[in-house]
Amino acid sequence: MSSSGTEGPDNTLPSEAELAEMSRDELVKLGGKLDGVELVDYPEPWPVKGTRAEKRAERIVALWFTIAGLAGLAFVVGLIWWPWQYKAPGESGTFLYSLYTPVLGVTLGLTILGLGIGVLLYTKKFIPHELAVQERHDGNGEGSAEIDRKTIVAHLEDAGARSTIGRRSLVKRSMGFAGGALGLGLIGLPVASFIKDPWKDSDNENSLWHTGWLPKHPGEVVYMRRNTGKPGEISLVRVEDLDGGAMETVYPFRESERGDEEALAAAFLRSDNPVMLIRLRPEDAAKVVKRKGQEDFNFGEYYAYTKVCSHVGCPTSLYEQRTNRILCPCHQSQFDALHYAKPIFGPATRALAQLPITVNDEGYLVARGDFIEPVGPAFWERKS
Asked: Is the pTM of this model over 0.85?
């Protein structure tokens, strides 16, 4: 607001001393007049204080805020304590596990809904619905004068007083409860992912540096297994299974997991497990450019690359045989399978991690070890 060139009804502006002695109502009227605002109608929402209808409206508003608060607390409890570990179909606890995401969605949604309805009802029932007409001016680009600062503060105080929020302790407490519960949930949502230290035991398969292809003990054989759609079925990959130019997604398998339905199913669910196994055509295999230090990671015409895109972690699930390009459908990054899967188009800036592979005495394709670099997008401690 600016009062430059604007005068009061008697063509003079009050001094600072006179401003200090003016009541809030007088400052409100003065501020409106200085800004060319005419209040056509400014009715009290509840002209008679303390009526049953007023109390009922207040309780309804408080009820919605209370519902929001309780739902917010339920969200936090569900986020932290609801059974979230994977349970295979038929196992004990499968039903509770299946409800984890719906519980979070319903409770968080109810929290936001309750807050929204409570605010809307309070605005409708207790905020004065004024009708005002104002003449607009730009103030000549000057800052607000002291008189404008005084009157705008008076307007804000008056709006707060007319909304009657100051004397509605039930609404204030329930609104604070709902807002606090929602805030706790919003804080808990990102913090929950850090409850488990990602750097604890960083040499195991559950750290950011390793994947499910890491052998759990020296000499352990990690086979390549295809997904047949049946979690308990074990279908291993032989050299002769793929034709030249073919691609198949494979997952790690250990003999220690045979007969363990939960472990077999979990291998398909882990996000850094999928590997794109590609058998190049002989004429294409002769053109391959290998990455320094990874010259022996392939087995003949077979090359294995992570399916986790180095951009933001989407699945690079498409392989174009004619051009030997690996494609990420999320942001259209493309990687050259003949040039150690380096990016040649799109936002990705790093090559896909390559899994070292070989064939064992039984003729099955196996991993020679884990990836030698983290898969997927960058993180703070990553050097590249």
From this structure: no
